[in-house]
Amino acid sequence: MWTLDRNAAIPYWQPRRAQSAQSGAVLLFSTRCGGVSRAPYDSLNLGRSTEDDPAMVTTNRVRLLTAAGLDPERLATAGQVHGIRIVEVTAPGHHPDCDALVTRVPGLTLAVTTADCMSLLYHAPGVVAAVHSGWRGTADAMPLTALEAVCRLAGCAPDAVRVAIGPAIRGCCYEVGEDVAERFPAAAVRATDGRPRLDLPTVARLALEGAGIRPEHIQDTEACTYCEPALYYSHRRDHGRTGRHWGVAALDG
User: Fold this and answer.
1) Quick one: which of 15, 17, 39, 175 has the most CB atoms within 10 Å?
2) Sheet strands side by side (includes 100-103)
């Protein structure tokens, strides 16, 4: 199970302590709390693609990584183009033309940004991955593409992989057009009196379980970014002028 200490100086989602200590990896999802950015990016904005002060974004990144026991100088990030390209990384740096990062290098931190889109963290023996998967990437099977990359690098079967689903806009709030809804399983689409509502975590869970991941190995924060403005940024709710969270994965080292 994953927990969020809302009273911490920098609240972030992480596996329970015992589970985290045994895993050999640091995995977390940030909130918007505990940083230095001013409105409308208040306060822990981690995204450089915003109009926030870059110096404040840097301070926020250092604060979060330091709080999690990670080295801010050992960071790899993804540019995120709403595709399904995955890059294996062996050193710090920015990778502009991909939506997911995977590594087997201990101590190297992977981060993807979100503000409604789904983030997924994968952990297999000796391998971690951080994945950005909005509706386009999910429709194009990003959750399975990432799983295949992790299994290939770890040399393992899907039942050895664990996946965590971060805060994202959920089926309670995510209205989409009929043309988008029809690309997904009916179980992930809620009919309403108006536009259909899409639940991307359900899509991911169905795909990953169908590929052989054990149901108990898929953990979901169940947090909706749109529903809780005090805790999360939401691109849709905030009309595009908002900050960004991180999904972070690193092997101990």
Assistant:
1) 15
2) 86-88, 100-103, 127-133, 118-124, 162-165, 218-220
CA angle (62, 20, 213) in 5-degree steps: 110
**CA 216 to each of CA 121, 147, 163, 221, 228: distance values in angstroms, whole numbers, following the listed order:** 15, 16, 10, 14, 26
Burial class, 187, CB count within 10 angstroms (exposed 0-12 / middle 13-18 / buried 19+): exposed
Strand-pairing partners, residue 100, are: 86, 131
Distance set, CA 236 to CA 55, 86, 188, 195, 243 (Å): 25, 26, 19, 15, 12
Q: Which residue from 91, 80, 81 is spatially nearest to 113, judged by alpha carbons?
A: 80
pLDDT average per 10 residues of sequence, the chain (253 residues): 95 79 86 98 97 98 98 98 98 97 98 98 98 98 98 98 98 97 97 94 98 97 98 97 98 92
> The whole model's pTM is what?
0.97
3 state DSSP class of 144: helix
